[in-house]
Amino acid sequence: MIIHSRYKNKTSIVLENDRIRAEFIPDPGGKMVSLINKKTAYEFLVQRKGELYRDQPFDGSYVDGECSGFDDMFPTIDVCNYENEPWKGVKMADHGEVWSLPWEYKMNDDSLHMSVKGKHFPYGLEKNVHFINDYTIRLDYTLTNDSPFDFEFLWAGHFMLNIEEGTRVIVPDDCKQSITVLTNSNRNFGDVHNWPYLKDKNGNGYRADISRSKEAKGFEKYYFNNKLTDGWCELQYPDNKNKLKVSFPVDTVPYLGILMNENGWDNLYNIFIEPCTICYDRPDVAKKYGQVSKVEAFGKYGWYIDLTI
User: Fold this and answer.
1) Cβ–Cβ contacts within 10 Å for residue 295, how many?
2) Domain residues of the chain, as ranges?
3) Please, are residues 38 and 18 in contact by the beta-carbon 8 Å criterion?
4) Which of 73, 201, 263, 274 has its CA 20 to 30 A from that of 98?
C-alpha cells in the first residue's frame, strides 16, 4: 500500500505492508521520517517533539533544523570548498545540499520515486523506494552528472536510530579498526583503535558495540578504516523483539561510519549508522587519506540501501 498522509505540517507518503510502515516527506530532503516495526509498534527513527517541522533554508545549519530520521548527506557532510576546476572554491553546504531542498516525487502502484537537482553543482539525484519482500524496504539511488567534468562527492546515509541500554551493534568480521573523527572524550581526530574496545574520558575501558546507559553521556563518531567486503550493519535490541539490518553494495558504498550518542549530545540517546562512499565527513579530507568517490563526466553512479526488520 502507498498513500498520501501528513507528518507534522508536511505532506508525506506512506509505504506499508503487513510488517513495515515507512513514511517520507518530499519537502525537504526526500527524507524518511518514520520506520516502524508493525509487529512490535517500535519506531526505529529518532523523532523530534513539536507539531511543526523545523525547516532550514538552503545552506542553513543541519543541527538547527529537524535533525532526525534518515537524511541523505550529499555531496559532503562538513562544510568545505570544492577542490577541482571548474568549481574550485565553490562552497559545499553544511551536511550537503539535498537535505534542505524540495524533492519532486511520483507515486506508482507499489513504489515512490523522488528526485532533486543540485544547487551549486550540475547533478541530479534520484531514489526509488519499494518493498523487495515482507521484511525489507529498498531505496535505489541514481546519481547523474550533467556536466563534461568529473564530479567528486561524498554520500552518506544519515540514519538517526533509537536505542535502549544494551543495544548491540553487529558489523562484518573485517571491521577490526576504527578511526575517531568526533568525540567528547580526550581522543583526537584520526586516532586508531582496535574496535570495539575504547576508553572513556576517565581512562576506563568499555565496549563500543554495546550501548551504555544515558548516564555515560558518551559521544563518539568513528569510521572503520577498511573497505568493506560485505556491506551491512545490524542493530540487535536487548528485548530480542526488534532487529534492524542496513545493507548496501560495497562496490559503490564501501565504507561504514558509526556515531554512538549516549546522551552526550543534544539530550538524545541514539545511534547514527552511516554507510558512505568515502569517510572523514568531507571529500577534501578523505582525499588526503587516499579515498575518492566520483561520478564521471555525463556519467551515472548507482547504489541502494536495504532496511530489513
Assistant:
1) 19
2) 1-155+277-309, 163-257
3) yes
4) 263
